[in-house]
Amino acid sequence: MTVRDGDLSRAVSHALRHEPWLYELELDEEGWVPVEQLLAALRRQGGDWPAVDRGALERMLETSTKRRHELDGQRIRALYGHSLPGRIRKRPDTPPAQLFHGTAPRTWDVVEVDGLSPMGRQFVHLSADRGTAVAVGRRKSADPVVLSIDATAASSAGVAFYAGNDHVWLADHVPARFITPAG
User: Fold this and answer.
1) Residue 55 pLDDT level (bands cut at 50, 70, 90)
2) Ranges 15-19, 120-124, 138-142: which has the least confidence
3) Cα separation of 50 and 156, whole Å?
4) Which 3 state secondary structure label does DSSP give 12?
5) Are residues 112 and 174 in the same domain?
6) Last residue in a domain, options 20, 49, 78
7) Number of folded domains that form the chain
8) CA–CA separation, 96 vs 78, rounded Å?
9) CA 50, 53, 57, 58: dihedral to nearest 10 degrees?
10) Do 37 and 102 belong together in one domain?
11) Model confidence pLDDT, tens digit, residues 78-87
12) Comparing C-alpha atoms, which of 105, 71, 93 is closest to residue 169?
């Protein structure tokens, strides 16, 4: 038996995004950890986990429908979704002109006044396309509200944006004046 890619992705995400201390991992300030340390931590779980190797990680990354992790030489990190107490450092990047955010209808009343905040995560998660925002919003409501973010104006006003992957952008906070219902 081998560990399925979905199970491996969930375990790697848990280790690199949420509770690295449970795996005895120390992430650097940008969220990187040596691949061999991660593999050793996963193998300690027993069962089929001792069979997990670098090839399994590479297959998981190649076949994933969402790019959540990044492999760079002998190190790996989660690209976004961190709920760690310490802040992962990101480099600001120029966003597309428009970004989207899907949420529950009851949340719009708060966002309309306060803007978008990270809540339990380190960053606000934004979608590069409306379809992804709808899918994300459906996790919160059967009939989500899709919000449009004027990223060009927000960036010009000093809001920092960070690339997560091809479909996800991150921000520290997006003020309400840059957000409208996508209609």
Assistant:
1) very high
2) 120-124
3) 50
4) helix
5) yes
6) 78
7) 2
8) 22
9) -160
10) no
11) 887 766 666 6
12) 93
Residues 6+ apart with CB under 8 A from 98: 148, 149, 150, 151, 152
> The whole model's pTM is what?
0.63
**Whether residues 35 and 104 fall in one domain:** no
- Predicted local distance difference test score (pLDDT) of residue 5: 87
d(CA 82, CA 61) in angstroms, rounded, equals 18
Residues 167 and 120 in one domain: yes
Structure tokens at 63: 């076949």
Residue 86: inside a domain, yes or no?
Answer: no
C-alpha span between 37 and 43 (Å, rounded): 10
Expressed as residue numbers, the domain containing 114 is 98-181
In angstroms, the CA 144 to CA 108 distance is 10
**How is residue 178 written in tokens?**
């840059």
Q: Assign residue 30 the CATH number of its domain.
A: 1.10.10.970
| pLDDT number for residue 152 | 97
**Helix ranges (DSSP H) in 2-140:** 5-13, 35-43, 54-63, 105-114, 130-137
Tell me, yes or no, whether 9 and 66 share the same domain.
Answer: yes
**50 and 113: one domain?**
no
What DSSP string runs through 37-55? HHHHHHHTT-TTGGG--HH
